[in-house]
Design goal:
Keywords: Glycosyltransferase, Magnesium, Manganese, Membrane, Metal-binding, Transferase, Transmembrane, Transmembrane helix. Pathway: Protein modification; protein glycosylation. GO terms for molecular function: dolichyl-diphosphooligosaccharide-protein glycotransferase activity; metal ion binding. The protein contains seven helices and four strands, in the order αααββααβααβ. By secondary structure, it is mainly α. It has three domains: 28 residues; 59 residues, no CATH class; 33 residues, no CATH class. The chain has a two-stranded antiparallel ribbon. Strands 3-4 form a two-stranded antiparallel ribbon. A hairpin with an 8-residue loop joins β1 and β2. α3 packs across α5. The longest helix is centred in the middle third of the chain and has 22 residues. The radius of gyration is 24 Å and the shape is flat. The relative contact order is 0.08. The mean pLDDT is 79.
């Protein structure tokens, strides 16, 4: 009876440990999966799909590594690279903002526009710049 109670207690504790992040922070992805997907997308963009499917990643599943080509669903990585490549082909665009539109935008929001809100501009950029 004592063994059964201890087993039940430890199973309950293990279950509560797994749910700790959900009960504390809510249903938000805050683990390492987004970082892996970002690295995998970068690798695909830099090396191409042939090397991507043969890539053996030693930074995940430490210490043994992980064969990426056979263990992931690469749809998100391919879609991200496709969108990025399509965005790079778009020309840089600048649009003069009319005064009546600028007057509707709060002053604090204009700080987030390039050229301080006098002109909207679009061009491909890197998050690391």
């Amino acid at each position: 009876l004592a063994k059964l109670l201890l087993l039940g207690y430890f199973c309950l504790r293990a279950y509560r440990i797994r749910l700790h992040a959900v009960t504390t922070f809510g249903m938000v992805i805050h683990e390492f999966d987004p970082w892996f997907n970002y690295r995998a997308t970068e690798y695909l963009a830099e090396h191409g799909y042939k090397k991507f499917f043969k890539w053996y990643d030693y930074m995940s599943w430490y210490p043994i590594g992980r064969p990426i080509g056979t263990t992931i669903y690469p749809g998100m990585q391919f879609a991200a690279v496709w969108i990025w490549e399509a965005m790079k082909m778009l020309p840089e665009t600048k649009i003069k903002m009319p005064k009546h539109i600028l007057n509707q935008i709060p002053k604090w929001l204009q700080l987030y526009f390039p050229n301080r809100g006098r002109m909207l501009s679009f061009s491909p950029m890197s998050l690391n710049e």
